[in-house]
C-alpha cells in the first residue's frame, strides 16, 4: 500500500543550511535567493508534491510534508512530538558545523532513526558545501553511518543535482515502506 503523503524530518546542527535546502527542494526559492542563515524557531513545515517518481515500474506523485527542524537544543523537549509518524529523516551538516557534527549526527540518528525503528534507507545525510573544494572527508562519522547514504550538496552550483538526490532518497523511503508492508 503506497502512502499518499510522507512525513520527512530535516534536522541537524544550527546554521547548517536546513531551511535553504528545504526551501530549494520544495521550489519555494531559487538558488540565487540563498540567504544567510536565520534560526528556525522550533519547526517549520513545508508541504509540496514530488512528481514523476518511478516506484517498482509505476510512475507516481507523492506529497511531502517536510519538517524543517531547529538545530537549537532548547527545542529538544519537542523531539518526541516531531518523531511521531516520521517516515524519513534528512540529516544536514556543513563545514562550519563539521567539528561538532559527528557527535551530533550520532545523537540525532539514534533518536530519530534507530529508536523509531526506521531503516538506514529511510535516512540520508546531506553535507551542505558552500565551496567546490569542500569534501566530506572532514566529517569523521561513526560506523553507524556506513549504511546511510551520504551526499555532498552545493545549492549554488549543484541545485538540480540536489533535487535528483532528494527524489532518489524519497524513492528509497517509499521502497522501504513498501517492503515493510508486504
From TrEMBL:
Q: Which domain of life is it from?
A: Eukaryota
Q: Which InterPro entries match?
A: P-loop_NTPase (IPR027417)
Q: Does the keyword Transit peptide apply?
A: no
Q: Which UniProt keywords apply?
A: GTP-binding, Nucleotide-binding
Keyword Amino-acid biosynthesis annotated: no
Note the Gene3D superfamilies from the entry: P-loop containing nucleotide triphosphate hydrolases
What SUPFAM superfamilies does its record include?
P-loop containing nucleoside triphosphate hydrolases
**GO function term, MF aspect, one:** GTP binding
Under what name is this protein listed? Intraflagellar transport protein 22 homolog
